[in-house]
Amino acid sequence: MSDRYPRDSDNRDVGNYGYDDRTRAYGRQEPYAEPGGQRYAPQKPASSGLKFDVGPFIGGVVATAITTFIAGWVATAIVQAVYNRTGTSVFWMYGLEDPWIAGVYGALAAILAGAFMLLLFQAVPSPNTFFSWIAGLVVVAVIVLPFLAAGAITAAFGSAIVNGLMGFVIVALLSTTAAKTYHGRS
């Protein structure tokens, strides 16, 4: 036999026959081919039914609660400082003594919103869309309601600013958390 017909170590024909097939990609193997040339079907990983990463999601909810607490505390302290500076003595939603109360309410709202988002993951086909709409409507309500309930317009402005800031923080951070941890329908 000549060297013109290449053979492997067992003297089997390897099929090149002296020409170079320029249509094949160098260094690539046949897709889904085992080394012996046998084809096989790719195995799909076993699904546990979860479409999101639970650990990072819960961590994101806790981080959102902490961030909302800090945002509510800082915003309340600023609004109270403005009221004290301008000599406006009004009784408003979060009182005049303790700015951390708004932060506690905000943190509780963030945890409830996270639990609601978890429920939406399991119940609806497009949880991010439903969460955005529902949370957006709740934020509008907590901004508008102080104007309907407060005796003084200055008290309503302070409460609306703090509520709006905390609502924005919750919606923005939980939406980002969902986008990073949910791997299902959007």
Automatic annotation (TrEMBL):
Residue spans crossing the bilayer: 57-80, 100-121, 133-154, 160-179
Biased composition range(s): Basic and acidic residues: 1-24
Region annotated Disordered, chain positions: 1-44
Keywords of the record: Membrane, Transmembrane, Transmembrane helix
Name assigned to this protein: Uncharacterized membrane protein (DUF485 family)
